[in-house]
Specification:
The complex is a heterodimer.
Chain A: E1 3-11, E2 20-27, E3 30-35, E4 46-49, E5 54-57, E6 59-64, H1 75-78, H2 82-98, E7 101-106, H3 114-123, E8 131-133, E9 135-141, E10 161-164, H4 167-180, E11 184-188, H5 207-219, E12 223-228, H6 231-240, E13 244-247, H7 253-261, E14 267-269, H8 273-281, H9 289-295, H10 297-313, H11 336-345, H12 349-363, E15 381-384, E16 401-406, E17 409-412, E18 426-428
Parallel strand pairs in A: 1-4, 1-5, 6-7, 7-8, 9-10, 9-11, 11-12, 12-13, 13-14
Antiparallel strand pairs in A: 1-2, 2-3, 4-18, 5-15, 15-16, 16-17
Helix pairs in contact in A: 2-3, 4-5, 6-7, 8-10, 11-12
Chain B: E1 3-11, E2 20-27, E3 30-36, E4 47-50, E5 55-58, E6 60-65, H1 76-79, H2 83-99, E7 102-107, H3 115-124, E8 132-134, E9 136-142, E10 162-165, H4 168-181, E11 185-189, H5 207-219, E12 223-228, H6 231-240, E13 244-247, H7 253-261, E14 267-269, H8 272-280, H9 289-295, H10 297-313, H11 336-345, H12 349-356, H13 358-363, E15 381-384, E16 401-406, E17 409-412, E18 424-427
Parallel strand pairs in B: 1-4, 1-5, 6-7, 7-8, 9-10, 9-11, 11-12, 12-13, 13-14
Antiparallel strand pairs in B: 1-2, 2-3, 4-18, 5-15, 15-16, 16-17
Helix pairs in contact in B: 2-3, 4-5, 6-7, 8-10, 11-12
The chains are: A alpha/beta, B alpha/beta.
Chain lengths: ~425, ~425
């Protein structure tokens, strides 16, 4: 583990404060000291002269599917055998860290144990990846999003979701995932415009089923997250105490009031990329704009913009990330979300950065030690060549991430070989 | 891919030639030139690595590899590892082999149907680092044979690390399944194994079953390998044309004659370290030398040494590697086999090195472009701090492997940072 002093960096600390020039010292896996003046290294620290680059907290992706395999449909996810799927997840986990995502919240996996196994392997140091909260498969009901079986192929392995019917099947299913060691149980409460058989505004799961799932999860101290695009599903999530609400496109004033009333307990991660990509860039994968409108994406975008802007104004925690891992939005391009927040939801760039960092620490269940550059916080840091506040686009460019540190260990070390011409210099103090 | 010129290296070319001071140029994934002496080649446009007298030799080949054995003390713990963790384990181990200088491995059997195939494919796709790899099937065995780990009250086939069949038609179906998955080799368990309570001399598979397996594999141009400790199982291998014979401890004169007559076809990879370590170095895991002796391992080790020495004298190809991946014989320590070939089987160090390099190219089915430091050959190279001919054990020390190159790319790049280490790099 590092004993590192970053000097001459612009500290973007994640709190929303304007960046300032200063020094940050890391010892072990924590931030030891942050100062606004240049300080001298203590205890033999390696000194990294940032030459004015931005030092900021690592990003948090609030709605991650390692198991989605950058294809244009669900079928390709299901057709990948378990063995290949494990290697894929290992590969993608590193990809996230390579792009500056030092934390990810698993939003659902495609086969029962993929997320758990990947998280464990990261924690054991067997593979590289971000801090990760492992999810279950999407638990769904017959005929809804996640049920991909066909009449003549009725095998559950053919679905990326786990299909239940009734509270007792739900209980058994939730207990199985809890046995495997998930951090969160994912429920598909609403449909999705991507699947014509279950559009976004439909709501599928009975209150009895939702209630038993939440109850079983809470008994074991675990969290429930939901796919909830319809207004009714958002309310259902809030009624039952699900903490992480994905999408939340359709709301009414009652739903918004409920969201606001629960704003200290819940997180919303809209995952706008699917809607935006299919509506505006779908041609490349054979989805014309007319088709996308027909699927309901124009209507959903309008509703989502209104709902999420309203949530943001009401102080509901809205976080970036979501549903990357399709051909139209491959893993690694997730920082687009910060720009979407500014363009569509009325965030300032600084607010978007706060939601990707400070709020990230909160959704990772480490509100007092993750997501900020602050003394005592975990050393998840990015050294960025550029100013994300004036240009969020720099976060999309791997080359602009000069250094990536997770838990006090460099995943990407700043290049600073002696004797070569570069802006970096290395001094062992 | 690198265009690299190694200068000032002792070239140990894998053919049995004495090492000579020279220079080796790699272009793309092949060895472009080998020259004796110094300053024989221009370094312009190349990354020049001054080896400062280190030995440049071909990457080694492990002839009997089980990525999916998980460094535990029992077969049971192999089976208790779920498939997801098992994939990540194999991925982890594949890298370890490469880092320890094994640029080629021959899969000898995997513990779940597709592990070997998936790992080979991922290596070839560049998704994970690992050696060149020939993927094996599970061990195909008969009910009650080695690798049948089911219990009377737990008759579930997933409890087996082998695939259990009975009769030629079940064999055919099983072989076809593995061929469909894409294996390079079908593995048959023809004899027993003391540690499972089945004597090594036991030969339980019928000729009809073996014949069907070999016929199906050959239809698809694939190879068959066999776990064959008993004398009869060795003869079965020769009779049926099973090219790769693992263990071969109990060959009698007739078996040796049969093998010698077809020595251009067969490879023997004894996995001698398994016998040595199980006999003498497994006490920590409950297998004291007395227990091992009681099982039969001391007798087999003695027989195997005798038999393999005879094979060596008859010119039968014997290759190092085998059954690493147990607690007392962990993955990555495989270069011990070369030392054991010298100590127990009467090899000279140079002969042991040839068997790990040149013969490695042959068993990898690339006799004309793999396993030697020769112009036109694939650039699988090790830069070794020391002289393996004088001290074969240097290959066991990871720190002595200054560089590992596979297919023209460094997996372990020489540490050539300016001002550090004995090596110097010049961008010319």
């Amino acid at each position: 583990m590092a004993n590192v002093l970053f000097t001459n960096v612009r500290v973007l600390d994640g709190t929303g404060a304007q960046p300032y020039t200063g020094d940050v010292q890391v010892q072990g896996n924590r931030i030891l000291r942050v100062s606004r003046s240049s300080s001298s290294a203590t205890g033999g620290a390696t000194v990294i002269d940032g030459a004015g680059a931005t030092l900021m907290p690592g990003l948090c992706e609030a709605h991650t599917h390692f198991a989605w395999n950058n294809a244009a449909n669900f079928d390709d996810i299901q057709r990948m055998p378990t063995e290949e799927h494990v290697l894929w997840c290992a590969h993608v986990a590193k990809e996230y860290l390579d792009h500056g995502w030092t934390s990810c919240v698993g939003a659902a996996t495609a086969k029962p144990r993929l997320d758990v196994v990947t998280r464990n392997a990261i924690n054991e140091g067997l593979i590289k990846g971000p801090r990760y909260l492992a999810a279950s498969q999407e638990i769904t009901v017959h005929g809804s999003l996640g049920d991909e079986t066909l009449p003549h192929i009725p095998y559950p392995e053919y679905s990326f979701g786990a299909i239940v019917s009734g509270p007792e099947e739900m209980r058994k299913c939730v207990r199985m995932f809890l046995k495997y060691g998930v951090d969160s149980i994912k429920l598909n409460l609403s449909g999705d415009n991507f699947v014509p058989f279950a559009p976004a505004e439909t709501t599928w799961m009975s209150d009895e089923e939702v209630a038993i799932a939440v109850k079983e999860a809470k008994i074991r101290g675990k969290r429930v997250s939901v796919h909830a695009r319809s207004c009714e599903s958002v309310k259902q999530a809030l009624r039952h105490g699900a903490e992480v609400i994905y999408h939340a496109s359709f709301t009414d004033s009652e739903a918004l009031d409920m969201l606001e009333a629960n704003k200290d307990k819940i997180f919303v991660a809209p995952g706008l990329s699917v809607i935006l990509k299919l509506l505006y860039e779908g041609e490349v994968i054979g989805v014309s704009q007319a088709k996308a409108k027909d699927m309901g994406y124009e209507r959903e975008l309008e509703a989502a913009v209104n709902s999420l802007s309203a949530m943001h104004k009401r102080g509901v925690r809205v976080l970036p990330g979501g549903d990357y891992g399709f051909s139209w939005a491959p893993h690694g391009t997730n920082a687009m979300d910060l720009q979407y927040f500014v363009k569509y939801l009325g965030f300032t760039p600084m607010q978007a950065l706060v939601s990707a960092t400070a709020l990230g620490g909160q959704i990772m269940m480490k509100p007092n030690e993750l997501g900020l550059i602050k003394e005592g916080y975990l050393a998840d840091l990015l050294l960025v060549d550029g100013d994300p506040v004036s240009n969020l686009g720099v976060l999309l460019e791997k080359d602009k991430l000069l250094a990536i540190m997770k838990d006090g260990v460099f995943h990407k070390e700043p290049q600073m070989r002696s004797g070569r011409s570069s802006r970096w210099t290395l001094n062992a103090a | 891919m690198a265009n690299v010129l190694f200068t000032n290296v002792r070239v140990l070319d894998g053919t049995g030639e004495q090492p000579f001071l020279g220079e080796v140029q790699v272009q793309g994934n092949r060895i472009a030139r080998v020259a004796r002496g110094s300053r024989a080649m221009h370094g312009s446009g190349l990354t020049v690595i001054d080896g400062a007298g280190a030995t440049l030799m071909p990457g080694m080949c492990e002839a009997h590899t089980h990525f999916s054995w998980n460094d535990q003390p029992s077969l049971g713990s192999i089976q208790k590892m779920p498939v997801e963790e098992h994939v990540l384990w194999c991925r982890h181990i594949a890298e370890r082999y490469l880092r320890r200088g094994f640029t080629s491995c021959v899969g000898a059997a995997t513990a779940k149907p597709r592990l070997d195939v998936v790992i080979r494919n991922a290596i070839e796709q560049g998704l994970i680092p690992g050696p060149r790899y020939l993927a094996a099937s599970q061990e195909i065995t008969v009910a009650g044979g080695l690798a049948d780990e089911t219990l009377p009250h737990l008759p579930f086939e997933e409890l087996n690390f082998g695939a259990v069949i009975s009769g030629p038609e079940e064999m055919r179906k099983c072989v076809r399944m593995f061929l469909k998955y894409g294996v390079d080799t079908i593995k048959l368990n023809l004899s027993g194994e003391y540690i499972t309570g089945l004597p090594a001399e036991f030969t339980p598979m019928t000729d009809a079953e073996v014949a069907t397996a070999v016929a199906e594999a050959k239809l698809r141009n694939k190879r068959v390998s066999a776990h064959a400790r008993s004398c009869e199982s060795i003869k079965q291998c020769v009779r049926h044309g099973i090219e790769i014979i693992y263990h071969a401890s109990y060959a009698d004169e007739e078996a040796l004659d049969m093998l010698e007559a077809r020595k251009d076809r067969h490879f023997v990879a004894p996995g001698i370290a398994w016998l040595i370590h199980t006999s003498h170095h497994a006490g920590e895991y409950g297998i004291t030398p007395e227990i091992a002796k009681g099982m039969g391992y001391h007798r087999e080790l003695e027989m195997a040494c005798e038999t393999l020495q005879k094979m060596r004298r008859r010119g039968i190809r014997i290759l190092p590697g085998g059954d690493y991946g147990f607690a007392w014989i962990k993955h990555g320590t495989n270069a011990k086999d070369l030392e054991y070939f010298v100590k127990y089987l009467g090899f000279t160090p140079m002969q042991a090195l040839i068997s790990a390099t040149k013969l490695g190219g042959e068993i990898m089915m690339r006799p004309n472009d793999l396993g030697c430091v020769k112009e036109g050959y694939l650039a699988d190279l090790l830069l070794v701090d020391g002289d393996p001919v004088a001290n074969i054990s240097v290959l066991q020390d990871e720190k002595r492997l200054l560089a590992v190159m596979k297919d023209g790319e460094f997996h372990v790049a020489p540490d050539v940072q300016a001002g550090r280490g004995r090596l110097a790099v010049n961008a010319a």
